[in-house]
Amino acid sequence: MKTKKIYLDAAATTPVAREVLDAMLPYFSERFGNASSLHAFGREAREAIEKAREKVAGVINAKPEEIVFTSGGTEADNLAIEGLALAHPDKKHIITSAIEHPAVLETCKTLEKQGYDVSYIPVDSEGIVDLDRLEQEIRDETLLVSIMHINNEIGTIQPIKKIAKICQEHGIYFHTDAVQSFGKLKLDMKKIKVDLLSISAHKLFGPKGVGALYVRNGVKLKALLSGGGHEQGLRSGTENTAGIVGLGKASEIAVKKISGNEYKNIEKTRNKLLERLLEIQGVRLNGSKEKRIFNNINVSFQGIEGEALVLMLDKKGIACSTGSACSSHKLEPSHVLLALGLSELEAHGSLRLTLAYPLTEDEIEYVTSAIEESVRKLRRISPFK
Amino acid sequence: MKYSKKVIEHFTNPKNVGEIKNADGTGKVGNPVCGDIMWVYIKVGKRKTKKGEEEYIKDIKFQTMGCAAAIATSSMLTELAKGKTLKEAKKLSRKDIADALDGLPPIKMHCSNLAADALHKAIEDYEKKKKVRAKRRKDENQTNTNL
């Protein structure tokens, strides 16, 4: 039998869309200018970057000057949190959640070592941040609340509108890591008072190595890199023109997808696949059924370990992950699943499937039986049936 | 992270999977934090040698919940241990198993390489049970003499 290849790891990364690549290509060799140069080559690059900025801003109804290009989501998170802290040294308390991406958690830990106090707000069994707890934690010296929009592992959607309101009432800055939601869910910066919002291109059929930070007008940050003062002094370094153009193009396409049927179709096929998987014995859904991004599935299978399952599925041409690709470097179970209240063994048995496209009926069938068969095989080896 | 061909072979087709009913010794090791749990069962046999008699691993089986490395090391352990005298089997180390698999990724050397520990525990279990049996027999004999 010919092995099919089915990519179900869109939350890790997506391929660069053909149109995105086509838009980028001229900016490597033909239009190679440095956007800071005064001559025609430079002006051409500058123009392309500013056009891309408008497109990125358009996705979230922001002003173009509120978009700062970075090397990706991780840098955007670092710049948001550390940059804000450095610019406001009088306030030394930060509130975040227990299920943030390492780019946020590790930045907070770095600040803790520098004398900052960080509160990690717990989540309920579905992975939703406890808003009462969040409000209780607010003090006079609270500078920032940083809560992600969509969790990368379990796809839970946080109530960022409510969080933004709480922050506004208390005069606290609000940062959200929107790497998994930018271009997928409707976001309007005129309606939600988010101060800082992190964006990445490669989760949205754009290139790796480029992202952006939305910085609401009037919010002061201190740059983390010293240099020529590019990006309004917030991100020194010659602009990655081709990458930025790619993010712009990906944003333009995403806006059409948000208002079109593509995402609804992905959701329909995700629901079908999920329904089939939940029929397998000893399975549990991790995260929320309703408050969930349209392309995410995260399930735990009793008695087996996720990495073994991922490897077995890889042999059958199915690409997926356990927890998040980033934590594959560590052996500890996912901090996100532990925060939901799963035991360590349950957390180790997790499998994340994230769709990049709607699946065909055949693909749903193939993936379901491959998972069923692999789970059965691993349970035969396991002492826990 | 990349696994050796041998690890993938043993992971895909593990040898000696299962439980031995009435095992002579059982060794259970594991660490839920790492997600690896291993149960090893042994059957001990006796065979004649020039010097007399020796005990050896007549049969060995395992059950493992864990990653590919955990399953592959368990499988390799059973192959290495089968037929060895208890004295030899006690000397089987984590390194022996990793070497036989053409190495493990460094991050997997500690947590997932527990198979040797499980075997040592199973042998300990066997020897403890043997002592208990011997003591019981001795006590019974004594009771019989006293009567």
List the helices and strands and how they pair.
The complex is a heterodimer of chains A (385) and B (147).
Chain A: E1 6-7, H1 18-24, H2 40-59, E2 67-70, H3 73-87, E3 93-97, H4 102-113, E4 117-121, H5 131-137, E5 142-146, H6 160-170, E6 173-177, E7 196-200, E8 211-215, H7 241-259, H8 262-277, E9 283-285, E10 296-301, H9 306-315, E11 318-319, H10 335-339, H11 344-348, E12 350-354, H12 361-381
Parallel strand pairs in A: 1-11, 3-4, 3-5, 5-6, 6-7
Antiparallel strand pairs in A: 2-8, 7-8, 9-10, 10-12
Helix pairs in contact in A: 1-7, 2-7, 3-4, 8-12, 9-12
Chain B: H1 5-12, E1 25-31, E2 36-49, E3 52-65, H2 68-81, H3 86-91, H4 94-100, H5 108-111, H6 115-146
Helix pairs in contact in B: 1-2
Core attributes:
heterodimer; A: Aspartate Aminotransferase, domain 2; Aspartate Aminotransferase, domain 1; three-stranded antiparallel sheet; B: 147 residues; Sufe protein. Chain: A; 6 helices; elongated
Concise overview:
The complex is a heterodimer of chains A (385) and B (147). Chain A has helices at residues 18-24, 40-59, 73-87, 102-113, 131-137, 160-170, 241-259, 262-277, 306-315, 335-339, 344-348, 361-381; strands at 6-7, 67-70, 93-97, 117-121, 142-146, 173-177, 196-200, 211-215, 283-285, 296-301, 318-319, 350-354.
